[in-house]
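FORM 12-B: Structure-to-Sequence Request
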């Protein structure tokens, strides 16, 4: 008996596949993470993230301009200070590199895009941890909350529209919300890095921010095997007032992402992190993988799993591809209007 049910009918041509595509990426749902370094006169390459740099203020502005032209949703800024200390003073100093870069870009671009900032101490502390340390060397949760509150106010005053709370301290969302509201920053949004795992995939990022961390972050970031706990963290952050929750990394944590997307009543974002970027770039540099297809496939998969928006170092590149193809394809380079074979079975 020949089959009467033939799913291949809907795959027979590029226009047909396009018509029935379940997942499309739009440039507005891509956010570019960017590093701005203090004391640079030229951008500095990040060797483990080919194509990414530590920016000067001027090159950062040019990149934001490019992002706006490509239609991306916004940028997430990270600061790389020249001087670090035990409490991360540079994070709360209005003249610290992250706050200066934020003010500079916010003033320049206003509401032409959404300027967002990483709210965490690790780039600013000499020990490299995301919080301040207690006398016994452990990361002091509640003392860190006080630093985060001050950091939040400094970032809001610099003009950041969304604060990315990435430190994984208990109670950080509620604490920062309260501090913002008490200082007239009711309109500053909180993106909670809710389910953030202690992964090997942050390796290249640590080069990108000149991290001084020795040891690990396992007492605050999550165990990679814990799925239920990822959902719990997200629900806690929503209850504390998070405007957006995030799962990070993205590609290896799509189950967690799907769980959070199914339960959340606020937008759910995912962060395609430095190691996810580096693996693809390295394989592609060796000629082992079709780089452009894999980039789009990885982003499509993250959106398919439930992300409304993705932080990705390929944000501008992917958005420019989409623009070039008129935003009208499934997004797969080999299935777009240009690459279509249209062949019949
Ligand atoms: C913490 C932070 C990290 C990343 C984003 N925010 C590093 C960490 O937790 O060790 C990693 C992002 C990436 O790997 O691309 N400020």
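FORM 12-B RESPONSE
SEQUENCE OUT:
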């Amino acid at each position: 008996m020949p089959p009467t049910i033939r799913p291949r009918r809907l795959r027979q041509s590029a226009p047909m596949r396009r018509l029935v595509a379940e997942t499309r990426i739009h440039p507005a749902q891509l956010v570019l993470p960017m590093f701005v370094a203090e004391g640079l006169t030229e951008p500095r390459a990040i060797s483990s993230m080919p194509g990414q740099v530590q920016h000067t203020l001027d090159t950062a502005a040019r990149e934001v301009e490019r992002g706006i032209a490509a239609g991306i949703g916004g940028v997430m800024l990270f600061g790389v200070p020249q001087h670090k200390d035990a409490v991360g003073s540079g994070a709360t100093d209005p003249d610290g590199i992250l706050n200066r870069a934020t003010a500079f870009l916010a003033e320049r671009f206003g509401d032409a895009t959404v300027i967002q900032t990483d709210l965490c101490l690790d780039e600013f502390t000499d020990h490299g941890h995301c919080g301040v340390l207690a006398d016994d060397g452990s990361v002091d949760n509640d003392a860190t909350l006080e630093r985060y509150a001050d950091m939040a106010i400094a970032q809001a005053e610099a003009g950041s529209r969304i604060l990315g709370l990435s430190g994984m301290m208990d109670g950080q969302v509620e604490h920062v919300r309260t501090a913002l509201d008490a200082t007239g920053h009711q309109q500053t949004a909180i993106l909670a890095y809710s389910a953030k795992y202690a992964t090997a995939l942050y390796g290249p990022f640590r080069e990108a921010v000149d991290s001084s961390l020795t040891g690990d972050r396992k007492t605050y970031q999550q165990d990679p095997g814990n799925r239920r706990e990822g959902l719990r963290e997200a629900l806690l952050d929503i209850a504390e007032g998070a405007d957006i929750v995030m799962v990070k990394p993205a590609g290896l944590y799509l189950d967690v992402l799907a769980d959070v997307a199914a339960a959340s009543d606020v937008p759910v974002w995912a962060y395609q992190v430095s190691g996810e970027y580096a693996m693809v770039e390295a394989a592609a540099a060796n000629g082992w993988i079709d780089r452009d297809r894999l980039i789009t496939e990885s982003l499509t998969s993250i959106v398919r799993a439930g992300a409304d928006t993705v932080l990705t170092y390929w944000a501008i590149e992917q958005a420019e591809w989409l623009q070039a193809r008129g935003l009208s394809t499934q997004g797969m380079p080999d299935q777009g209007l240009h690459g279509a074979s249209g062949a019949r079975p």
